[in-house]
Amino acid sequence: MLIRQVRVRGGRTAPATARPVDLRITGGAIAEIGEHVDRRPGEDVLDGGGAIAIPGLWDQHVHSSQLAQAHSRLDTTGAGSASAILDLVQQELARRRETGRRRGEALVGFGHRLVDLVVPPTVPMLDQVTGEVPTVLIGGDAHHAWMNSAALRALGAPPRDGVVGEDEWFDLVSLMPTLPGVGAQVATGMAMLQRQALERGVVGLVDMEWGRIWETWQAGGSQLRVRTAVYTEDLDFVPGPTGMVLVAPGPAGESLVEMGPLKVILDGALGSHTAYTRDSYAGGHGPAGHGVLTWEPEELVAALRRAKGLGLTAAVHAIGDAAAGVALEAIERAQIPARLEHAQMLSDQDVVAMARLGVGASVQPAHLLGDRDPTEELWHDRTDQAYRLRDLLDAGVEMVFGSDAPVAPLDPWLAMAAAVHRSADEREGWLPRQQLQPREALAASTDGVGALAVGGRADVVLLEQDVFEDVPLGADGMMVDASAREAAQRLRESRVLATVVAGRVAAG
Length: 508
Description:
This protein is of the alpha/beta class and about 500 residues long. Helix content is about 30%, strand content about 20%. It has an eight-stranded parallel sheet. A seven-stranded mixed sheet has the order 3-2-1-4-18-19-20. A five-stranded mixed sheet has the order 6-7-8-9-10. Strand 15 (about 340), helix 10 (about 350-355) and strand 16 (about 360-365) form a beta-alpha-beta unit. The radius of gyration is 23 Å and the shape is globular. The two termini are about 15 Å apart.
């Protein structure tokens, strides 16, 4: 393939080329970049028309099966009370009765947050509204579910009065497709999520879904590059050494799926009051309100050493600062290449340790938009430890962006915009000292590819315009807020003209 007349956007410091160039792609790699490259006989041509060319974008943290179901889920986002959620459930059941559609299917919802509910949700409350329709209402942070008795029975969970949370809930997630109607939703949704990702310029995902998710990708093939995580309970099923390309043929016959890291969930989440922190916080669960640590340190070290023996890297979920400390100590003892997933709350010593150990930070900038107010409420004396993007970058920590979809949309442009301005409303950017320049946000979104170059992967995204110019700084050395807001808006409104994956036009 020959991509003609594009302005190649450089790496973290370089602007787009002033003059358009041509890119030749051969065998899934960029073979030539130059002005007026001659077309070879039979070579396909994509006319860029002066578009901006950037490396393909990645989402480094998604849950594909849950995201695949999102299009058919009841949206409970913003419901500020248990009664408001129950009203939404009643309305959905009424619609099903009126239309006759989906009457025999389970009702699955997503989006509410425990931190917003004054009255705790209970199983009897939900039973009264839903009867025998299996109902699972998943929290917006994906760390708990409010289920009725019919769903608990269907998934083999013991009776209870309250929500199902943390490890117990994670064990049930892979069983969700066994509920009536849910399995078909996953099959339809997987194709939909790939199409939507490609339209946004996403060429690759790191899939953190529970269960042996690589089998799903192997069975269905993929139009995207995918690295699939594995959890400790499935380590016996790892099909060969890490980095091994799995048998999952893509559209051109090539395989785009490979094994990714061992995923370990070490603590809970802010929204469920279960993130494990060094200091207690208002409403925190667990001993003395410090949240929940789901692994004993010695067991964590043993799991990481086992993964290293299989040739795997590690991705350790750590949202609270105490969880980050436990994770970093275990990673150092196990001597395994690793990254912290979320890295949402970090002390100075954690940032230093990550840089010293070469531990990466896999962060989800869009989360800070919704976490701003709860953080100020629950961690009001430690907000300077939240979402330390600038501090991590300046310390030399490798940082990559993701969404944790469906917790946030699979949308790298939203993530980059959040990293730049750090506000979702009329307020100024939150903790503005931690803002990133647009080009720095881009660098965290391309799977380590600094710029399109000869010999690099043939994953290319064409944009209508360059939206990565630096935001001017004020006298205090921080971004001018109005300019940062405008830059974030330009990122959110970016128009993707074409997405090329492994030398094939996948969208546009």
